[in-house]
Amino acid sequence: MSVQFPNQSFNEVEEEDALSDIDLGKIVVVIRKSLLWVVLFFILSFALVFLFLRYTRPIFRANSELKLENSSGSPSLGLGLFDSEDQMQNNLVGEMEFIRSRVLMEEVLTRIKLDVSYFVRGRFWFNYDERFLSSPFQIRDYAIKNPLYYSREINLDFIDQDEFTLTYETPEGEEISTIYKFGRRIKTDYFELFVDLNLNNLKETDLSRSFFFTIQDKNSQIRYLTSSLEVNVLNPKAYSIEIAFADHSPVKASAVISTIYDAYKEKTLEYKNQKYLQTREFLENQMQIMSDSLESAENAIDAYKRANGNQAEWLDIKTKVEEILANIRKLQEERLQIISELKAYSKIAEFIAHDSSAMLTSTYALLVNDARIRDKITEVDRLKKEKQALLLTAKETTAAYKKKEWEVGIAETDLLKIIEFNKLLLYDKRNEIDANIRKQEGSIPEGATLDLELRRLTRYSEYYRNNYNLFLTKLVENSISMAGTVTNLRLISAASVSTIPIYPQKKIFYLYALAAGLILSVGFVAVRYLLENKIMNVKELEGLTAAPILGIVPASRERMPYSQMIVHKKPKAALSEAMRSIRTNLDFFGNLQQKTILSVTSTISGEGKTFVALNLGGVIAMSQLKVVLLDLDLRKPKVHLVFGKDNIKGMSGLLIGKHTLEECIYQSEIQGFDYITAGVPPPNPSELIMSEAFDALLLKLKQTYDVILLDTPPVGLVTDGVIVMRKVDIPIYVVRAEYSRRNFIKNINKLYQNQDFRKLSVVLNGVSSQGVYGAGYGYGYGYGYGYGYGYYDEDHKKSIGKTLKTKIAAIFTFIFNKKNDS
């Protein structure tokens, strides 16, 4: 196995941007370290959604489906025969706007009482429910003196079935609470009202609950209706629409939809009957005129009879005179009919000239005998509607609009020509009747001249009576037609409300919670990945250091209070195999059999240099070489702890001549592996290492041992380690995965490049299975066997499993307690 050298050369290595190379191994490690936070993010997201769903008032949606029949109807509503899909669409839009109109909303408010809303409070101040049509009390005959009290909460608490407490705030913020009796008028400076008890809705638990009510003005009620109302086209070809209403109370939403449909139906019927109502008004006016004229004629006859006495004995007139007078009477009736028809033609022409309502024009068209007039009026009205509908999709300057305007003008001109032609015919006919009347009057015998005035008065009386009866008949026919009018609406489905609220929808919000937990987790892991400044794996170390990597030491699942030498206990373990690989790679730097001095250092304490030195020394000794380990970390010695020796005789005493070499050398469990402890910590460890005594000691040890292994102090804290490294053949620098910081590599690069430690190599210690990713060193197996690096700091973090278990239990306890409280 050869040593891995980096391909790039470093002049000055700085900490690299984590975004420059995505490290999957590092991501796995960060995720593993962040697992607790990820779980907490998901728990927090779902807990917040649970609380939101628990204390949010749901909104229910009631809807009803209508179909507008494709038959003739009221021009005001635009219901009729449609010549195109565009016209159908325009009429649908008109119907939808009418349903949303203020006129219809005001009609709805007259049918359903929405001015007072009743609520019962829950356990929390923000939790309350509306008691629509089920309130145990009712507000009536109220008068709001101060507009600020519209939509303001007024609290009501039962004392018993006779008394209650009314609480409200003044505009200045002062709270007023007064006891009243039910059914008595309440007078304050701000409002007056009656509160009646509704025993039918009173429940036993209501006496102990807190209620409040609000009073809305008319504009607020209309805004409430229009803001929650939806009118949608279901199928334009089927001419069907949907009316929907959303509210916190499903009963209220259903009631509002039913009321809107009833009001819309009656308003539609009212508009359809408007033509009949105007016709009826005209007929009643004509009947009144005929009645007044008939009364005047009869009074004139009575006066004539009293004035002329015996001369009025007209009953004895000859049969010839009777026939003449009957002819004259018939001619007079025809003449009056012609005059009435001429007046109707004049009115129709006047309405057309002033672009009046087609309904008024059609009313006068009933008084003429020419059916073409009514057909033409209908055609003109249809063309005008089509022209108006074009304005929704086109401008007045477009060719389509001008063409439709030309068609309207042609139709009106044709109608006026027919009217003028008919009027000329009627004038000729009237002149002809006048000539016949004069002719008949001239044929009356000479002896009957005394009764001509009486006969004339009698003719007028009979005419007025006949016309009165005619208008009465027309009035009856109009009333029958009006009674038979039906709307063009068909109810496809009655108002219904779903038991599942449209908001909030639990599935969607839990998906939101899942997405939020995922986003927070990914974001947290990403930020932690970007901010992670510790060495995670070999791949990352290779990209940072200029020195060659000597090998890696796998991590162990077993923790120990201090470093131990265990390669001789588990020779087939992954750790032992790793140490043997490092021992083999050392041959690339020099022959260990030719008296080699090795040093093992690190940047700070806790990176495992003592552990690596111990086990590396043991592996070298097991290869039939004599090895001695010197503990040169005089400030914080640890080697004596490994072997259970006291730290009295060691390097410090040996270097000042207090102890002899034979007194300080100890033998380990491995044959050929000896060690010297640090001894009593001196006040000047750097001076001792720089002394000639230390150099002499090394020369003396070379005479006995093949490999001298120096456990030096961390170079990031003191200079002792660098001093020792200048005296050795092969310096080894230990970096611990997930412990050593990325900027520690700067020290390695400076030593390797600037201070000319060309044989410096790096060992990555404590590598997990994920940390081997991409290394190619062959230690991705067997990490569950034996021991690895077991050094354990007392301030190490608590077990993740235990911490996770404790936090999850605390969160669920909090949620459970909240649920029980509610």
Structure description:
With 822 residues, the chain is an alpha/beta fold. The strands form 4 sheets. It has a 9-stranded mixed β-sheet, sandwiched between helices. Helix 7 (274-308) packs antiparallel against helix 12 (452-483) and helix 9 runs antiparallel to helix 10 (371-390). The two termini are 68 Å apart.
Descriptive tags:
single chain; 822 residues; alpha/beta; 9-stranded mixed sheet; 6-stranded antiparallel sheet; 48% helix; 17% strand; elongated
What is this structure's SSE topology?
Layout: H1 24-33, H2 35-55, E1 60-68, H3 85-99, H4 102-111, E2 116-121, E3 128-130, E4 137-144, E5 154-158, E6 163-169, E7 175-181, E8 185-187, E9 191-197, E10 210-215, H5 218-228, E11 229-235, E12 240-247, H6 250-272, H7 274-308, H8 319-353, H9 358-365, H10 371-390, H11 399-442, H12 452-483, E13 489-497, H13 506-531, H14 538-544, E14 549-560, H15 574-585, E15 596-602, H16 609-621, E16 627-631, H17 639-643, H18 651-655, H19 661-664, E17 665-667, E18 673-676, H20 685-690, H21 692-702, E19 707-711, H22 720-725, E20 730-736, H23 745-754, E21 761-767, E22 789-791, H24 800-821
Parallel strand pairs: 14-21, 14-22, 15-19, 15-20, 16-18, 16-19, 20-21
Antiparallel strand pairs: 1-12, 1-13, 2-3, 2-10, 4-9, 5-6, 5-10, 6-7, 8-9, 11-12, 17-18
